[in-house]
């Protein structure tokens, strides 16, 4: 059996991150900030990755693109992007352009900040966003985008207390969060990011930052230091337990006492079928999206046995409440994937939550698999997202049970005589 430290501490290993690079963030960020354009300075590898990962059709005319570096460009001092910027402005009329770095130009020591400043105009700012896969997990690049937006958030006057939600969610989820806060008597200052560049929220010393995504610790710290804002440290609003804690703790920061126990109970009742199925199931989460801690906490609360919850990076202060709720669960930072493979083959969990890159090999060994990337794409926040979240974990079991008289061990013997040899 996998061992859990007796003091509940995090096990830290030293593996590289098995996830998409930070460039993948454009897939949801350009859709959120509707008057933006994301320009990536990269290679053919970057272009191939984005074309395959995001799968955009030509007529969709997405608001992102790649300025390709050719071999001949490697000897130049700095790339010239003026013509590309002019074309972007003519075709898309953006209010802001984000210039994203990638691995090769970073190795070349391209001065991205200087390049962005040179290309910017008073009418259309060009903002540098470090997003190289050499440094950032793919969700962390959203943190970099929000970093770049901070100077364009107005200074909120002292005495105007309001909440600003940190994190990119679709408009329907944002409307739900706004309505819930206002119903509790909490003034909403906005979201970072908002749907349009000119509508970024005002932030000041009386602003409460409420992170709704678990990978935005750096921008929260930046706003605390530069604007004097305070950050809510609670569970993230995933599942009945997380949503209740999130709203009760946020209300407290506004001097409002609220008991949402009945609402939490009703939410658990709403997903009774799903939790009955999850109860006792052994689930193993490999590192990918940095959403693993709150997802594992929801599973743990739902009665599943979380064999291991691993994540690329863990911030003990930012994730303190999630870690507290996961006491007794094996939590690993920067896990060694080869060790995980051996543990999974030996312990044979009922489900593996893992990346797109590692999912098929696990399926090939007969495991039930859930793509961790799917949690990035679905509305799973707050009360309105409870059913979707629970169903995402249950749907792989439903699909497997629909297979007639499935026996994994018999199947394995037929397709791979020695599963032990597969690494």
UniProtKB/TrEMBL annotation:
Ranges of residues in domain Nitrogenase/oxidoreductase component: 21-396
InterPro entries found in the cross-reference section: LIPOR_BchN/ChlN, Nase/OxRdtase_comp1, Protochl_reductN
EC number(s) recorded for this UniProt protein: 1.3.7.7
Known catalytic reactions: chlorophyllide a + oxidized 2[4Fe-4S]-[ferredoxin] + 2 ADP + 2 phosphate = protochlorophyllide a + reduced 2[4Fe-4S]-[ferredoxin] + 2 ATP + 2 H2O
Record keywords, A-Z: 4Fe-4S, ATP-binding, Bacteriochlorophyll biosynthesis, Chlorophyll biosynthesis, Iron, Iron-sulfur, Metal-binding, Nucleotide-binding, Oxidoreductase, Photosynthesis
Binding annotation for [4Fe-4S] cluster: 21, 46, 103
Role: Component of the dark-operative protochlorophyllide reductase (DPOR) that uses Mg-ATP and reduced ferredoxin to reduce ring D of protochlorophyllide (Pchlide) to form chlorophyllide a (Chlide). This reaction is light-independent. The NB-protein (BchN-BchB) is the catalytic component of the complex.
Subunit structure: Protochlorophyllide reductase is composed of three subunits; BchL, BchN and BchB. Forms a heterotetramer of two BchB and two BchN subunits.
Name assigned to this protein: Light-independent protochlorophyllide reductase subunit N
Source organism per UniProt: Chlorobium phaeovibrioides
């Amino acid at each position: 059996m996998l061992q859990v430290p007796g003091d509940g501490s995090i096990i830290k290993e030293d593996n590289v991150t098995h996830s998409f690079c930070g460039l993948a963030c454009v897939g949801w960020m350009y859709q959120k900030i509707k008057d933006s354009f994301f320009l990536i300075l990269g290679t053919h590898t970057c272009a191939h990755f984005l074309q395959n990962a995001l799968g955009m059709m030509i007529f969709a005319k997405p608001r992102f693109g790649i300025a390709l570096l050719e071999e001949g460009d490697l000897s130049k001092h700095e790339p010239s992007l003026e013509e590309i910027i002019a074309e972007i402005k003519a075709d898309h009329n953006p209010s802001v352009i984000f210039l994203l770095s990638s691995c090769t130009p970073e190795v070349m020591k391209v001065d991205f900040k200087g390049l962005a400043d040179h290309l910017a105009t008073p009418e259309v700012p060009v903002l540098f966003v470090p997003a190289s896969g050499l440094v950032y997990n793919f969700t962390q690049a959203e943190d970099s985008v929000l970093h770049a937006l901070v100077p364009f958030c107005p200074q909120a006057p002292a005495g105007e207390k309001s909440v600003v939600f940190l994190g990119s969610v679709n408009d329907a989820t944002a409307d739900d969060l706004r309505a819930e806060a206002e119903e509790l008597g909490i003034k909403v200052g906005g979201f970072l990011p908002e749907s349009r560049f000119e509508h970024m929220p005002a932030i000041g010393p009386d602003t409460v930052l409420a992170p709704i995504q678990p990978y935005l610790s750096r921008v929260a710290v930046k706003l605390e230091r530069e604007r004097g804002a305070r950050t809510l440290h609670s569970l993230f609003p995933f599942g009945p337990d997380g949503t209740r804690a999130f709203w009760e703790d946020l209300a407290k920061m506004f001097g409002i006492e609220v008991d949402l126990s009945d609402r939490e109970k009703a939410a658990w009742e709403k997903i009774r079928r799903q939790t009955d199925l999850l109860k006792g199931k052994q689930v193993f989460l490999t590192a990918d999206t940095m959403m693993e801690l709150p997802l594992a906490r929801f599973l743990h609360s739902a009665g599943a046995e979380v064999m291991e919850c691993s994540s690329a990076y863990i911030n003990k202060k930012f994730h303190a409440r999630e870690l507290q709720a996961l006491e007794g669960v094996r939590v690993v930072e920067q896990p060694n994937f080869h060790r995980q493979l051996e543990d999974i083959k030996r312990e044979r969990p009922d489900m593996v939550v893992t990346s797109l890159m590692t999912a098929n090999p696990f399926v090939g060994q007969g495991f039930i698999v859930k793509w961790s990337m799917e949690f990035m794409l679905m509305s799973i926040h707050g009360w309105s997202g409870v059913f979707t979240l629970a169903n995402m974990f249950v749907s792989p079991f439903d699909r497997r049970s629909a297979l007639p008289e499935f026996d994994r061990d018999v199947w394995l013997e037929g397709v791979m005589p020695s599963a032990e040899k597969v690494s």
